[in-house]
Amino acid sequence: MKATATSKTAQYMALFRALETTRPKEKRLFTDNYAHLFLSGSLKIWAWLCRLSPVRTLAERIIRKKIPGAYTSGIARTRYIDDLLNDAVQHGVEQVMILGAGFDTRGFRLPSLGNVPVIEIDHPNTARFKLTKLRNKKIPSRIRFYQIDFNKQSLDQLSAMHHFDFSRPTAVIWEGVTNYLSPEAIDNTFAFIRRFKSGSCIIFTYIDKKVLETPAAYTGGEKLLQDVSALEEKWTFGFRPEELKDYLLSFDLELLEDMGAAAYRQRYMPDRSEEGYEFYRVAYARKK
């Protein structure tokens, strides 16, 4: 990410959530009344116009042509992670930590988190931009925001500074981040998560390493990697799905679910099927 900019990919995900919110209530996968706040001028106009069904259809067609599979994959994964987080709360989670929070709004929009403390951690650029856009909204006191530049500070240092509570069962959300990091940063983050109490869990996204090695094997793969690199948000890391279980076990985490975009898209929107983004995955693991 540029040193003086917010994440473009985070803004695109906010756009996808804003578009989904314009669908008829009985047909949408979720409602996010905050997503439009994070959009730039032209994108905000598009989101507003998409209240009209023909305009929304046109916008979705343009997105599908430009980034095959990204929209439906992103929307389905948002709902999937929502459901996994709701499940974690029902099973005793007492706090939520969102790493690389971007424009995530779960702390505001999920009823299941109404009494659950939420800790958001993100890069200073994106965090400041987000708080600026939320300045006219009432932010619940249970939601706390922390900023970290991973090039200058570690999660362990941040937690010591702010006295994070590792004794409470915690759900960690790590969405749309791992593909931008180094192997060392990945290891350090899972080591940090291991500090939480047994029964804690992590819900995270990752890309199949194959897309970095053979992007042409996936619909739109080559162009996508070129585009994110041009945005200075180059993808640098992926897991091999068959190796993930053993990797997580080395951090005392038991893999409960690991689902690719094709599967969660089929689960939540079988009537809106499309190709693309099959390399994107969501994993759910619990501290043993």
TrEMBL record:
Catalytic class of the enzyme: transferase
Organism: Chitinophaga solisilvae
BP term (GO), one: methylation
EC number assigned by the record: 2.1.1.-
Family: Belongs to the UPF0677 family.
Protein name according to UniProt: S-adenosyl-L-methionine-dependent methyltransferase
InterPro entries given in the database record: Ppm1/Ppm2/Tcmp, SAM-dependent_MTases_sf, SAM_mthyl_Trfase_ML2640-like
NCBIfam families: mthyl_TIGR00027
Gene3D superfamilies referenced in this protein's UniProt entry, alphabetically: Vaccinia Virus protein VP39 (3.40.50.150)
Function summary: Exhibits S-adenosyl-L-methionine-dependent methyltransferase activity.
Matches recorded under PANTHER family: S-ADENOSYL-L-METHIONINE-DEPENDENT METHYLTRANSFERASE YKTD-RELATED, S-ADENOSYL-L-METHIONINE-DEPENDENT METHYLTRANSFERASES SUPERFAMILY PROTEIN
